[in-house]
Structures are given as C-alpha cells and as structure tokens.
Amino acid sequence: MRQFSIKSGMLLLMFLSAFQQGFAQNNQELIQQFLNENQEKLELTQKDISDWVITDQYTSKQTGISHVYIRQRHQGIEIYNAVANFNIKDGKVLSMGDRLERNLATRANSTTPAVSPIQAIQKAADQLNLTVTETPRALEPVSMQHFVFSNAGISKENIPVKLMYQPGDEGELFLAWDITIYQKDAQHWWSLRLDAQS
Questions:
Q1: What is the C-alpha to C-alpha distance for residues 10 and 53, in angstroms, rounded to an integer?
Q2: pTM of the prediction?
Q3: Is residue 91 classed as helix, strand or coil in its secondary structure?
Q4: Nearest 5°: CA angle at 84, between 73 and 51?
Q5: Cα distances (Å, whole numbers) of residue 46 to 52, 56, 113, 179
Q6: Which residues make beta-bridge pairs with 166?
C-alpha cells in the first residue's frame, strides 16, 4: 500500500511539474507572439522584444485569467523596472501593462563590468556610511551575473549582488550592480544600483 502511495505521489508530482512547465512555455509563446504582432504599435524594436524573462505568474481561480509578469533584458542582462504584465485567458492576451524600455541597443553603455561585485559592496557601504568589518565571501553564484555574498559585517542578511541596467535621466542605460543591504541595526533595508563601470 505504501509503495503504491509513493508511486502515485511521484506520478502526481511529475504531472504537476510537466503541467507547470507547459503552462509557462505556452504563456511565453503567447506573449512573444503578442509582442511581435504589436511591435510597431508599441514603438519597440525587434531587439527590445527578443530578450525577456518571466518573473512571476499565477491564475485567478475566480476569473480563470492568468497574470504573467516579465522583465526585459539586453544581451541577457535584466533592466531595472523594465517590466510588463499580461492578462491571458483562453489562449489570448486580453491586456498588457507596459513599462518596457525602447531602443535598448543604442542606449546600453556596456555589457562588461569594470567594477567587481566585492568592490561594489564596499562602494555601497561607503555611500551609506557603513563600515565593512569582514571581507565579503561569495556564498553561491546564482548565475554568471547574480551572486550572493556574506554579510560583510554590515547586513543582517547575506548580500545579493546582481548585474543590471539602470535607466538614466537622459535616456542612457548604465550597467550597474544591484545590491540589497539590510542594515545590522534593522533601521534600513537598502536597494542600490551602483555604476559597474566606474
């Protein structure tokens, strides 16, 4: 009886995993098709809509509408606050909330940082008048552009550092390190972007 129960549980888990994968892939295809068809109307270039990632999605039990959130990227690097949300039902995009950036290829200043993640943590601490008492240790690379470091004696939690683009006041896209520091006295939870080039 137990053996049957375990197998049934494993089959159910495999089915749910496959269903979620298919759900995500289907939404991804629908969104890409919608962006392709509305590219001119949205005043987006092909490069503006060719690189993005789903950051969250769920389906409302009451309405059956899937709410899908994406973040735009340029050459695999995410752009801060460049997001869009889509409402999808019965295989159709019903509506779109648009905060995507335009003309990425002509605005991005670089794809390679000159400042290391550890240097960025130190610079962030300097800006916040915090004293680094321990050299930050890399705990886990989430990806080639996203790292988690030890607290460096300045944060209550480990410090995530992620390479992103920060839109500038004059239309530039600056390569930046996105850093989160939860101050040790718990008075501030800082979210900063520091220029990754200087």
A1: 29
A2: 0.81
A3: coil
A4: 25
A5: 12, 23, 25, 30
A6: 174
